[in-house]
């Protein structure tokens, strides 16, 4: 359960904050992205963020393959990552943690 707690708290807090901000926003997500990329200082932050998102996407793909899952199983997380960056990997960690927990409970019942 400990492996799930921190990502779950971060996911709930950040997703809630994201929804709150998006509901109050005066411009679309695309317009906001364009305005961020219009200045070198904010563009650097966006580029840095998406480099980290790419690394997280690679990790999620490789982790899923090592666990015997198909590449298609990671696509929803990659799409969420492409739009909301950190929410995709956080969601992946939470789901992965619940899957691990479910597997370990099933393994102990077989003993």
Q: Features of this protein?
A:
111 residues, mainly alpha, elongated
Short structural summary:
This protein is mainly α and 111 residues long. The chain is built from five helices and no strands.
Description:
The protein is an all-alpha fold and 111 residues long. It has one domain (2-110). Helix content is 84%, strand content 0%. It contains five helices and no strands. The protein has helices at 2-24, 29-37, 40-66, 75-84, 87-110. Helix 1 (2-24) packs antiparallel against helix 5 and helix 4 packs antiparallel against helix 5. The chain is elongated. The two termini are 21 Å apart. Keywords: Membrane, Transmembrane, Transmembrane helix. This is DUF2834 domain-containing protein. InterPro entries: DUF2834 (IPR021362). The chain crosses the membrane at residues 42-62, 74-95. It holds the Pfam family DUF2834.
Topology (elements, then pairings):
Elements: H1 2-24, H2 29-37, H3 40-66, H4 75-84, H5 87-110
Helix pairs in contact: 1-5, 3-4, 4-5
Transmembrane segments: 42-62, 74-95
InterPro entries: DUF2834
Protein name: DUF2834 domain-containing protein
